Task: inverse folding
């Protein structure tokens, strides 16, 4: 074999090896990310977060609490889909905007499964030591619960999944549902692909 | 080409062009009361031809923050996907960082329109900025 075909073949091999998606940063949750028909993507979580926050702002429900800002307890948000992810990705982003924006506070020392056990113990100790009944304990207005569900269908190789994110605020003084919101997203395809 | 062949080609072209298109009926003949004037800086002329933002409406919500609705029309012959993002701006012109300012995607059928909407994160938002990007860029 002469030298020239070897060189050409080597150059062709290097060119092919160099092709393909190079690793790069993209904006989190942007439409350029991978879209997975059978999984919850970060775009879905951020879209759900956005929808929930807009609904809370639109209805003004947090302004109806006794406390200013309203006090929330974050309860169970159940992931009932086949996709494994931490539901905190949804709730923590909501909390960041609500708490840092002054629209709500989240009680992390409430109940048997308090998020911050240390803070809860300190609070109880302070109340016990003072013993005057005037220590300001958390007095939550609302409880946040929710569920994420999935409906899967397929036609041949094509798969379709509809993910429904639903959250509910319960007024702890009345026991009634004060606000609820569902955000749906449907994805179709036969395999994950890069978005646009 | 014979007359019959020409007619057959014309009929096929008309039926293909009509596939997936939408006829819209509305009683509204004037802009909505909450419509506001808006300007568009065009960087993608092709997008502007096929996907155009028509009426923009802004009004306060029950909770206080502003809500904006934008009608996006598809003037082409194909179903179009696009991404959009709303950023909210306060009275000083500063962008208000918010979890609601995300790129979202949606579709609009040929000849049809869709309404994209957003709610401001708080009452300090007085204006918005909308960016639209078509899917095939």
Result:
């Amino acid at each position: 074999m002469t030298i020239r075909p070897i060189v050409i073949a080597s150059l062709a091999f290097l060119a092919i090896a160099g092709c393909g998606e190079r690793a790069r940063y993209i904006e989190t949750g942007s439409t350029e990310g991978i879209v997975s028909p059978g999984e919850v993507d970060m775009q879905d979580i951020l879209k759900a977060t956005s929808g929930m926050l807009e609904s809370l702002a639109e209805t003004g429900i947090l302004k109806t609490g006794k406390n200013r800002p309203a006090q929330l307890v974050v309860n169970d948000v159940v992931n009932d889909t086949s996709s494994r992810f931490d539901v905190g990705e949804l709730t923590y982003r909501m909390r960041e905007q609500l708490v840092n924006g002054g629209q709500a506070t989240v009680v992390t020392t409430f109940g048997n499964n308090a998020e911050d056990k240390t803070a809860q113990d300190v609070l109880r100790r302070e109340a016990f030591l003072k013993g005057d009944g005037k220590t300001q304990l958390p007095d939550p207005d609302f409880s946040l619960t929710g569920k994420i569900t999935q409906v899967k269908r397929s036609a041949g190789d094509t798969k379709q999944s509809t993910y429904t994110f639903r959250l509910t605020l319960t007024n702890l003084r009345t026991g009634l549902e004060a606000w609820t919101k569902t955000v749906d997203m449907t994805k179709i395809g036969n395999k994950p692909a890069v978005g646009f | 080409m014979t007359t019959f062949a020409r007619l057959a080609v014309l009929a096929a072209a008309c039926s293909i062009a009509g596939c997936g298109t939408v006829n819209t009926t509305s009683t509204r003949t004037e802009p909505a009361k909450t419509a506001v004037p808006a300007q568009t800086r065009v960087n993608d002329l092709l997008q502007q031809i096929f996907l155009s933002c028509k009426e923009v409406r802004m009004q306060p919500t029950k909770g206080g923050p502003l809500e904006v609705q934008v009608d996006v029309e598809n003037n082409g012959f194909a179903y179009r996907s696009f991404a959009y993002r709303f950023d909210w701006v306060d009275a000083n012109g500063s962008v208000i960082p918010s979890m609601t300012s995300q790129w979202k995607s949606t579709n609009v059928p040929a000849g049809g329109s869709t309404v994209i909407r957003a709610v401001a994160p708080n009452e300090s938002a007085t204006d918005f900025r909308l960016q639209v990007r078509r899917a095939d860029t």
